[in-house]
Structures are given as structure tokens and as C-alpha cells.
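Quarterly update, task 2.4: adenosine-5'-triphosphate-bound model.
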Amino acid sequence: MTRLIMNEVIKIFHQKKVYIFFAILFIISLFNLAGTAITNRYLSGNNYGQTFPLILFDGVSNIIIPMFVIVLITSLFSDEYADGSLKLPLLRKVSRNQLLLSKMGAIGIVVLIFLLVLLILGYGLGISFFGWGDQFVLKSKSFEPYEGVMLTLFTYGISLISYLSFGMMILFLAVIINNSASVVAVSTGILFTSLVSDYIIPKAAPYLITNYFNTYRLFALDFEFKKLLAGLIVILTYGLGFYLTSISIFNRKDILI
Amino acid sequence: MSCKNMIEVRNLSKSFKGRKVIDDISLSVDEGDVYGFLGSNGSGKTTTIRMLLNLIYPNKGTIKLNEYDISRDFSKAIKRVGAIVEIPKFHSYLSGRKNLLLMANLIDDIEKHKVDEVLELVGLADRAEDKVKTYSLGMRQRLGIANALLCNPRLVILDEPTNGLDPQGMKEIRDLICRLSSENNITFFISTHLLHEVEQMCNKVAILNHGKIIAQGKVEDLVNIDYELVEIYTPLIDKAISEIENLDFVRNIKKSTKSIFVQIEKDHSIDLNRALINNNIDIKYLIPHNQSLEEYFIKLINGSEENDQTNNE
Ligand SMILES: Nc1ncnc2c1ncn2[C@@H]1O[C@H](COP(=O)(O)OP(=O)(O)OP(=O)(O)O)[C@@H](O)[C@H]1O
Ligand SMILES: [Mg+2]
């Protein structure tokens, strides 16, 4: 199983599109850096290095990273199904369940790497341009520095689980729609619809997975344990529900290509 | 050596959207066989191979590989089996060697040099570092065979392995299969639509037509080798026919517009030629026809189609 996951990770890092996403990440970081510098100077903002990772995360959490997840899943699943290479491991001693699980595991690892790079970029660029700062102030709320670090790690950590659950939903689409362009189109549609309905129908928000990509606002401003628990339940329901449905469909599916 | 059953298929059927594509086929492949699975386009060869490999599921019937039922013990059944389904597919953005290395990762206790060994064996070593998307169809076939050999297989299942190869490439692949069969005692199950391929490589054959097996057995039993077919080109067709029709080694004569087809007992072509010359019949050409299995095949298919028609009436 570990070797299977490693295979999938190796495949991901042999594809150009992954590096395009890392490049986009870097460019966006520079823009955010410039934006934050301008805010600090002319709008009397007081953003320091310790808050920069979360500012940066705000810029990529809703669209760039989910799109990265969509691209990863279509390339590991839909593209491989279409070009026939998906069956290669199945002709060895790999069950369909193991195959799906290892693909999702590999995507988890790659998204984790992506988030780590983001975190390092955030602290690195933030500290070298704005200094560490004496307080963690974000969205007009201030925390002790160590609380700020915890919040940052917490937000990044929860997001990894949310992205994986979102990924399970995309996996489900990939299993029922064979064509990878359609999977990208439908997933992007769902992503934007649900991002928009986050704002339009606030009542629906707690049940949408997109609501949990960036949990800083959700939990930092008024932390309630009940809210966190409810959030985790929603995230895990998405993940498990879509995974189990996908695997049961995939197990019965005739692989014709 | 006891004869182990490498493939055992019983009463297999498969329908696509209500249309029966495989209709109650049974076959068994013994250890050491090179088993030809012969059928024309659309007869159901690939569908059967997909079922053998658990890629699609039969509506009815059982399949055993290596004496394990694949619906229950697939991972045991597939352990020492190498396979190609249709045109071998690999990750096109990786090199041939990298693709094989990934596959090798999935095989327990594989020897270190196995990847290089199989690349060498199929003659792909010098292009192994190139990306698969730059490979020709023939090179993909070779890479597919290399992949099939990676797990030290006891059984190799190949779907039209010479498809898309030039005559030289076809011969190389056939020679490779014959060598692996005799030197490494690998059992082969090979689908093909080429009759001469079966005659050259296989000891047993099943002939598939419209999803049904219409004949199966040892190639030498199926091929009637005690007669041969000769085509005679002569300006004097009618005279020639009247001279040879009473010869005792002539079995059958068929007249066509420009020539005569004569079926004679084996090793009598010299006598036929002499009889014609002695009767002052000028011969332009005397052409031997390699028919055997081909003729048998056509006869069988025509026969089964007539049966189909009578059944429908
Ligand atoms: N996914 C599918 N849906 C419907 N029918 C299918 C499907 N796949 C195959 N068939 C039908 O099943 C029959 C057998 O197809 P199969 O690919 O097994 O033939 P084959 O013997 O491998 O032919 P070829 O020599 O062309 O490779 C054909 O009539 C084909 O149309
Ligand atoms: Mg086929």
C-alpha cells in the first residue's frame, strides 16, 4: 500500500501541471506581499510576519487549492481511465479499493506539501519583509503570538481535511463521469455555486464543504466547541459518504478501456 | 510433470445492454500450452480477456486462473500472470523504464535487474529512457510484453500481440513467444485474428465466432494435413479438368474464371504436374495454397452462420 501511494505521488510530480500550480502559488504570494505592504503603508494596516501565512491562505484557499485538487483527481483518475493506464495496477495484486485509497492518499500528501510550501512562504516572506511583529492582529482581533501560531496551524490543518473531503466529492464525479473535461467542468461549477451560495444563503453555509476551506473566520472570532464539532461532522460526512459511494460504484464498474 | 490447469473457463456469458457478446463459452488451458484464441473483429476476444482479468464481470460462468477462482481469490490468481489487453497503455509522460519501475514497485521481492532484463529481452533497452508518448505502436507492444514478463509469470495473456507490427516485428515477437514457452516453460493465451499466427505458434486453439466457440482442440488435429490445394493457371481450363478429374489422388476440382483449384492428396503435386504436361496442357503457373486451418475456419464460420439462419427461421 505504501508503495502504491508512492507510485501515485511519483506520477503526480512527473506532470507539468503540478509545477504550474506551484508557480501560481508563488506569484500570488508576491502579489499578496505587495498588497499587504501597501495596506501597511497607506491604510495604516499593522500586518506582521506572524499574520502573513493566514493573509496568504485567504488568497488561495477558496479557488486555487480546490482547483488544484480537481486537477489532481482528474489526472490520476479520469485521464488514466481514458488512456487505459488506470488498469495497470489492477492487473497486479492491487484491489480496486486499494487503488482508490492510494490515489486519495497521494493527493492528501501532495496537498499537504502544497500547504507546507504555502506556510513556509508565508512565514518566510512575511518575516523578512514585515518582521515578526509583537502581536497577532487579524480582522481587527488580536491574539498573543503563540495563539496566532496555533490558529494558523489549526486553520491549515482543518483545511487539509476539508480539501480531502472535497476531493472525495470530485472522486465520486470522476467515477460516474468518464470524461475528464466534463469532470473538471462539473466540479468547477459545483465549487463556484457553493462558494456563491455561501454568501447568498447564509443558512446553507454550515452544510457546504466550501465553508470549511478557510476556517479562520469561523472559529477564531467566536470559538465554540459545538461549532467545531458540527463542522468536523460535516467535513467527515462529505468525505466518508462520497468515498464509500465512489468505491461501491467503482467496484461494480466494468473497466472497458 | 503433472498437467496443471492454468486457465479454466466454464459457461461464461456476457451481455452489453441486452446484447449477448459472449455466449456460454468454456475452455481450458494446460500448463505449457501456447493457446490460440482465434476470432475475427468483434467476435469477443478482448471481452473474454477482460473477464479473465477481472476488469469486467461476467453475467454468468466461472473463471479460474492458476486454479484460483478469480471472483474470490483474484490477488492469488493474478500473482504469476502477465497480461496485455488491447493496445498496451502506459503513462505517456513517463519513460518506458520509469513505467516499468512503477509496475515493479507493485511486485513483492522482485529482483533488482528485472526491469533491465525484460527491456533487453524485448529489444527496447536503447529507447527505454524516452517518454512513452514518443513510442511507435510496435514499441508499445514490446513494452507491454516487457511489463507482462516482469512478475516472472507462469501464464501470459496477450491480446493481439502482433497487432500493428511490421512483418519483421511480428516475426520477432512470435520467436520471442516460442522461446519463452520452450525455455522458460511459460504458458501463453494469445488472441489473434491471424490464422497463420496460430499455425506458427500455437499447439491448441479455440475458434470464436459471434461470441461462441465453434471449434477447439489441438491445432494438429484441427488442421487436416493429409491433402493440399493447388491452383492451376492454364489457357486450356476445360481440357485440363477432363484430363485430371479421373486421377486417383485428385479429391476435388473447382473451376474459377481464370484458373482451377485442385485438392490433391499430400505429396502428389509432381504427379499432377506430370499428368498435365504428358497430356500437352500448357501450364502458366502452378500455385500451392496454404489453406488448412484457414479453409477449416471459413468452412466452420459459414457452417455456423447457416445454422444461425436456420435457427432464426
Ligand atoms: N462497452 C461496450 N458496449 C457495448 N458493446 C460492446 C462494448 N465493448 C464491446 N462490445 C461489443 O462486443 C463485441 C465483442 O467485442 P470485442 O472487443 O471483445 O471483440 P474482439 O474480438 O476483441 O475484436 P477485435 O478483433 O476488433 O479486437 C463487439 O460486437 C462489440 O461491439
Ligand atoms: Mg480486441
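Highlight for this quarter: Strands of chain A lie at 136-138, 141-143.
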